[in-house]
Specification:
269 residues, Rossmann fold, 39% helix, alpha/beta, two-stranded antiparallel sheet, 14% strand, five-stranded parallel β-sheet, single chain
Length: 269
């Protein structure tokens, strides 16, 4: 049985080490999706790191591309590329940029970062699976702030219309955007009712409860003939007290070495 608590601590430590080496990075949004990413890559996704373009692999799209540090750690742990690449994040000669690049990084299905586009890509992949008679699933991780984008809901309409029950949308509901709370920038509530009204079968879960995430994602689709939406209630900056729920930690640059050491000590061994 996977020790998700230990895995979460290790992932957060690796994220901090990447930040220390690069001197910059989106730390808050990466920390909030750790459990979602770990469960997907450790237990749910059908993939083959030795053959990243295996036609029947499940597709995973990190639409909120700025949360890529957690994604990179998971891909390296799975064996898509050497872990040594993590230390070259945003460095000359490295393959890992500030947002995922499909052309450079094995395991990355789509270049993302311009928010609002990942779900449309995922709908296209899910439709392609149906047309080609393939059994792969498509998972798309979006942010709640990203759901301010109209393109998200255009894609959702098409998913509902085509009854794409092989499509899974994971919503990172950490309730913060780069400059404020989602409730103040553009209120999304009731978020579960919104996804339901677009034809999705919707579940709500504690996004840091890895066992609950695993149980739900093991039992797909939630309802045959309806696309799946899993609203994951999370804490931005989860695992680091000073960063939790703090918009100032959306992106950090020039973090002092002694501060990194203190934060690593907070995570423990």
């Amino acid at each position: 049985m996977i020790d998700y608590e230990r895995l979460g601590r290790e992932t957060r430590r690796e994220i901090l080490q990447i930040i220390a080496a690069a001197g910059r990075g989106h730390i808050g949004p990466s920390l909030s999706i750790v459990e979602m990413i770990n469960v997907c890559f450790q237990s749910i996704l059908r993939c083959d790191p030795s053959n990243p373009r295996w036609p029947d692999r499940d597709r995973f799209i990190l639409s909120k591309g700025h949360g890529c540090l957690a994604y990179y750690v998971a891909l390296a742990r799975k064996g898509f590329f050497p872990k040594a690449e993590l230390a070259k994040f945003c460095a000359p000669g490295g393959i890992l940029g500030g947002h995922p690049d499909h052309r450079k990084i094995p395991g990355v299905e789509a270049s993302t970062g311009a928010l609002g586009h990942g779900l449309a890509l995922g709908v296209g992949m899910a439709l392609a699976a149906r047309i080609q008679g393939r059994a792969y699933r498509t998972f798309v991780l979006v942010g709640d702030g990203e759901c301010n984008e109209g393109s998200v809901w255009e894609a959702a309409l098409h998913a509902g219309k085509h009854r794409l029950d092989s499509l899974v949308v994971l919503v990172d509901q950490n309730q913060l955007q780069s400059y404020g709370r989602t409730s103040e920038v553009c209120d999304l509530e009731p978020l579960d009712a919104k996804w339901n009204s677009f034809g999705f079968e919707t579940q709500v879960v504690d996004g840091h409860d890895a066992r609950a995430l695993e149980a739900l994602l093991t039992d797909l689709p939630f309802q045959k003939g309806r696309p799946n939406a899993l609203i994951c209630r999370t804490v931005k900056g989860k695992g680091i007290a000073v960063a939790e729920g703090n918009p100032a930690w959306h992106h950090k640059a020039k973090i002092a070495p002694d501060e990194i050491s203190r934060l690593l000590a907070e995570l423990g061994d």
